[in-house]
Specification:
The protein is mostly helical. It folds into two domains: 91 residues, Endonuclease Iii, domain 2 (Orthogonal Bundle); 100 residues, Endonuclease III, domain 1 (Orthogonal Bundle), CATH 1.10.340.30. The chain is built from 13 helices and no strands. It starts with 12 loop residues before the first helix and ends with a helix.
Length: 213
């Protein structure tokens, strides 16, 4: 499926497999990594207000803690924009958000993002629209573009897991910076989001190996 702006959209496992085959043909190190990983996951997820609110909730806390806060928000009926709009920052704090995150949640609800409209925008426009919201940074916007919108040619280069995987796969002396990883990823276009899936999956392999030693 192509979006209106002619950017490739990842909708199925077959799309991911196509990208992985292309990456393996272009880069022997990716071919070697894929031989250890097998088929890469689709990792598509629902988009919209809840996806970004969840990203805000998850910032700088553990997965378990984020799940706990999200459960409290769900129990309070505070995971939809309309509900958050009528709550105050103090209300959201009582539910479990920090003052800063409560402010971000309010800003997201008040911004009124046209989530359906994002599907017809170019990835650069999507990132620009999302990062205009207080509390939504570049990493969050790129993750949303990759996994909620299925954009095939975007990579969240600021992600530490991606950087660490790239260090290991490419035998780099140090973890690449966000700028360095973006430069490396230019060679992985038009399948940078599949490269991201590969790097994310390889990171878990690294962590599993470390757990065994």
């Amino acid at each position: 499926m192509l979006a209106r702006m002619d950017e490739r959209i990842i909708n199925t496992e077959a799309d991911v497999a196509e990208g992985a085959t292309w990456l393996a043909a272009q880069e022997p190190r990716f071919a070697q990594a894929l031989s250890q990983l097998g088929p890469l996951p689709l990792r598509r997820r629902e988009g919209g207000f809840q996806a970004l609110l969840s990203a805000i909730v998850s910032q700088q806390i553990s997965v378990a803690a984020a799940r706990g806060v999200w459960a409290k928000l769900e129990a309070a009926g505070a995971v939809e924009a309309e509900a958050v709009l009528v709550l105050s920052v103090e209300d959201l704090r009582k539910i479990g958000l920090s003052r800063q995150k409560a402010g971000y949640a309010k800003a997201l609800a008040e911004h009124g993002i046209d989530f359906a409209g994002l599907q017809g925008q170019r990835t650069e426009e999507v990132v620009r629209a999302l990062t205009a919201v207080k509390g939504i940074g570049l990493w969050t916007a790129e993750i949303y573009a990759m996994f909620s919108l299925g954009r095939a040619d975007v990579l969240a280069a600021g992600d530490l897991a991606l950087q660490e995987s790239a260090r290991v796969i490419f035998e780099l002396p140090a973890r690449p910076s966000e700028k360095d990883l973006r430069q490396m990823a230019q060679a992985w276009s038009p399948w940078r989001a599949v490269a991201a899936r590969l790097l994310f999956t390889y990171y878990h392999l690294i962590k599993d190996r470390e757990g065994m030693t």
